Amino acid sequence: MMKTVQRGALIVIEGVDRSGKSTQCKKLVESLISQNIKAQLMNFPDRSNLTGKLINEYLINSDCKLNDRAIHLLFSANRWENVEKMNTLLYGGTTLVVDRYSYSGIAFSAAKGGMDMNWLKQAENGLPKPDLVFLLTLNHEEAAKRVGFGEERYENEAMQKKVSNIFSQLAKEEDNWRVIEASDSIESLQAILLGHTLDVIARVAKQELKSL
Ligand code: DGP
Ligand code: NA
Ligand code: NA
Fold first, then answer.
1. Per-residue model confidence as pLDDT tens digits over 158-193
2. Where are the beta strands (DSSP E) in 38-119?
3. Which residues form the Thymidylate kinase-like domain (predicted)?
């Protein structure tokens, strides 16, 4: 007899720093669990593993010098370190809500310049492909007002504006993306995200995961 796949959905939230991704990810997981849907939060970069510790040092210490391609590959390796865990959870029926993914990898590296887009995407090829990507958009002035902005390496206006433009470009090229204006209240944003997420969970339950 054929085994029926009943997998969870891979949901990613992307956006510039301080756009509210982490809050929305957390709330989305809580909302799903309260409806008896198996769900788990994942966060990239995952600062708890070996590559994550190096990445954390790079982000918090502006004196830390590291070649642009080397750090690009480290961020990518940090996602690869989690691939078995992701597949196990997804095929075990758990929906994953992921705070940043490969698209951050592409956007932040592309914003630095000097690296070919195809080269940047290559490191992500083969990772599980999201069933849905939310892009939270927020103008720089609002993001910069939010608590903690400016503490880490990339949190400056020039970088964030470039990243924001590259995300918008990716949203046009990639499928499964939803662009959401993030200046609304936490609750109204959450309602929109939850609605789309529930649709996708139902739609992909019996589909194979695709790869980037
Ligand atoms: P977060 O903890 O999600 O706020 O991410 C920390 C910072 O690292 C943030 O400025 C975004 C950036 N970042 C996230 N993923 C990647 C990546 O894959 N590559 C690069 N270069 N930067 C990333
Ligand atoms: Na950040
Ligand atoms: Na993250």
1. 999 999 999 999 999 999 999 999 999 999 999 999
2. 39-43, 95-99
3. 13-190
The pTM score is: 0.96
Question: What is d(CA 199, CA 18) in angstroms, rounded to the nearest whole number?
Answer: 27
**Position 24: which residue type?**
Q
Ligand 1, from 56, 100, 147: best to mutate by most atoms within 8 Å of Cβ? Answer: 100
Residues 6+ away with beta carbon under 8 Å from 20: 136, 138, 182, 186, 189
> What is the Cα–Cα distance from 131 to 2, expressed in whole angstroms?
24
CA of 43 to the centre of ligand 3 (A): 5
ipTM of the complex: 0.97
CB of 59 within 6 A of ligand 1: the answer is yes
Q: Is 43 helix (H, G, I), strand (E, B) or coil?
A: strand
Atom of ligand 1 nearest to the CA of 22: 3
CA 146, 149, 151: angle at the middle one, nearest 5?
A: 155
Q: Which amino acid is located at 80 in the chain?
A: W
